[in-house]
Design brief:
This is Phosphonate metabolism protein PhnM. GO terms for molecular function: hydrolase activity, acting on carbon-nitrogen (but not peptide) bonds. InterPro entries: Amidohydro_3, Metal-dep_hydrolase_composite, Metal_Hydrolase, Metallo-dep_Hydrolase, PhnM. One of its GO terms (biological process) is organic phosphonate catabolic process. By secondary structure, the protein is an alpha/beta fold. The chain folds into two domains: 86 residues, Roll (Urease, subunit C, domain 1); 293 residues, Metal-dependent hydrolases (TIM Barrel). The strands form two sheets. Strands 1, 2, 3, 4, 5, 14, 15 and 16 form an eight-stranded mixed beta sheet that branches. An eight-stranded parallel beta sheet has the order 6-7-8-9-10-11-12-13. Strand 10, helix 7 and strand 11 form a beta-alpha-beta unit. Helix 7 runs parallel beside helix 8. The protein is globular and about 70 Å long. The relative contact order is 0.16.
Length: 381
């Protein structure tokens, strides 16, 4: 099995089964897969560790935490991207869609003043071969924002943009159907007074009524025109899902109820849920748990959302215990399924001819521990 990299004595997780054997990489691609249990010369002995495809992450807003580590602080964009990338790669993510929110700026700031440097930082770092994972952009479009189309415009034809979602975070529906929970979260997160929360609630509900439908329709048209996969965010009702399907959306991202998830399945939308929700055993917003949907067979894709290390942990959680769907199917939620949802057919599976984005993983007391990461056959973590 000649090649740039050979691994042996591995438990190889393919799309269909877990095999024991060897794998060879040549030219950044998987060249050969063999059930041979010998140790070829120069091979990396996996000693029975798992060999998995690199993880594909469709939605993480983690970059913004590195670019704005404190209120009012803007870190140099390239090194912020590098710090974010290092954490992502260490979590086994070899393809990441950095989710940037198209929302109004704080304290009157121009949101483009923060968006442009982050996008340029990704572009510069990627062009300079400074990154371990491959990065794309996922634009999260808040339809309650009067100027969301203006925020989208500078990135309309940017080749980094390969995914988009439409959101409506007005209280009283979707993520914040429970107004008491909305008040609790914002009082704790922003230290707002009751009067301030009341004013914000009224303002956001009015903005949703004024701009929501028009902006949603316009953004969906832009996405379809670009051929972008589009996700509907926080679907709560059958009507939300029907609207998404009619607008050509292909993913229901974080549905908040069992009813919405069932409707998404009926309408052919892929269902994306948060791995932190699954690992923690529930939603921090008080909505439907990912575990409940998984038991109903209603989870196609997992996203790490705000905790990169949760992605692999979530997949192994699905494969174990009450969910018991088996490792190949569980890992598909973080590899094959997100890759296909994003139109990336060259990765996400261990199969000859595909990209050699690979992980070495060992279970220690039931916790998946990443021991090595390769992207296109090159060791990156």
């Amino acid at each position: 099995m000649p090649g740039d990299l050979i691994v042996a004595h591995a438990r190889i997780v393919t799309a269909e089964a877990v095999l024991t054997g060897s794998l060879a990489v040549a030219g950044g691609r998987i060249a050969d897969l063999d059930r041979d249990e010998s140790l070829p010369p120069g091979a990396v002995d996996f000693e029975g560790d798992y060999l998995l495809p690199g993880l594909v992450e469709l939605h993480t807003d983690h970059l913004e935490r590195h670019y704005t580590p404190r209120p009012g602080v803007r870190w140099p964009a390239v090194t912020a991207v590098m710090a974010h990338d290092a954490q992502v790669a260490a979590a086994g993510i070899t393809t990441v869609f950095d989710a940037l929110a198209l929302v109004g700026g704080r304290n009157g700031e121009d949101r483009l003043e923060t968006l442009r440097p982050m996008v340029d930082g990704i572009r510069q770092a990627q062009a300079g071969s400074m990154l371990r994972a491959e990065h794309f952009l996922h634009l999260r479009c808040e339809v309650t924002e009067a100027n969301v189309l203006q925020l989208f415009e500078p990135f309309r034809d940017d080749p980094l943009v390969q995914f988009m979602s439409v959101m409506d975070h007005a209280p009283g529906h979707r993520q914040f159907a429970d107004l008491a929970k909305y008040r609790e979260i914002y009082k704790g997160m922003l230290g707002m007074t009751d009067e301030q929360i009341d004013a914000q609630t009224a303002e956001r509900i009015a903005a949703s009524r004024t701009h929501g439908v028009t902006n949603r329709d316009a953004l969906a048209a832009i996405g379809r025109g670009r051929g972008l996969p589009i996700a509907s965010h926080d679907d709560e009702t059958v009507a939300h899902v029907e609207e998404a399907a009619a607008l050509g959306m292909v993913v229901s991202e974080f549905p908040t109820t069992l009813t919405a998830a069932r409707a998404a399945r009926e309408h052919g939308l892929q269902i994306l849920m948060g791995a932190p929700n699954l690992v923690r055993g529930g939603s921090h917003s008080g909505n439907v748990s990912a575990g409940e949907l998984a038991r109903e067979g209603l989870v196609d894709i997992l996203s790490s959302d705000y905790v990169p290390v949760s992605l692999l942990h979530g997949a192994f959680t699905l494969a174990d215990g009450e969910h018991g769907i088996g490792l190949p199917q569980a890992l598909a939620t973080v590899t094959i399924n997100p890759a296909r949802a994003a139109g990336l057919e060259d990765r996400g599976r261990i199969e000859p001819g595909l990209r050699a984005d690979l992980l070495r993983v060992r279970l220690v007391d039931g916790v998946p521990v990443i021991r090595a990461v390769w992207r296109e056959g090159e060791r990156v973590a």
